[in-house]
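tool_call: predict_structure(chain=1)
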Amino acid sequence: MRLGMTTLTWASMNIDAYIRHIICGLRQLRDLVNSVNDIIENRIENNLKAVSRARLIDLPQNASYTVSDFLSIQRSHIMSRAVNLQNKNIEIESAVDDLVEQIKSYEFESPDENVKDEDIQKLREHYNQFMYQALLHSAKNSMNILKKRIGSRGNNIINSSRPFFEVNVHLIPPFVSLSPSLDEIQDCINKSAQTILSCYKSVNDWKHRCSDGRPCAFSERITRDIELVRVALLLTGCIQGIRNTVTDYLNSFPKVRSPNACGCDCRFDNF
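tool_result:
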């Protein structure tokens, strides 16, 4: 367009050829913009949204679990989600590569006007950061869902979810105890949180490379996030809030002496 701005006038002889050249250039630019928008919207942004909304925990509101069943169910679910996250990660990385190739294949008028390598690197880092943020959001959301479900109460109409764990009260004279214990329940929750974080070890970070040339995992960056660490700490101590309540409830039962302590056998023999 520089020729029309500096040299040509409406009285020039080659004005028609210039206009056809401009229209052809605008058509090529339009095709490039449409192709770039298609890759960004359908192959990058849609996959990023799917990753961000991924729930790494399976918690139906109308189900209760034993400690062993809960761990096995969640590990199976998280492993399947980890495979899906890595597939989405590969799709996004491939889409970014295709986006770069589309931009680099565009023919500029001047040979000096080419796409710089540093601009390509910035574009890759831009979408790599978006991928990291999507994975981080899925981790925080999954842990918050688990924390909210554990802290739910099913004794009112508004919140009618079933108890999270199946807990029995056992009489072991002279005391009354829970089975499983609160420590066992807390350990189960801690292992579930660790399993959530471990699933990101299978999602390759296409920005960073290890010393041996292999791609690093996103887990190294995700586990260093301060907000996620805070959520994990709250989750690993979520049972402490009800420990005193449970202890008071167990202490409300009168102590029961064993039959031997009462001398029942001797009384029976005397009878």
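agent: Residues 43 and 94 are 9 Å apart (CA to CA). Proceeding to next step.
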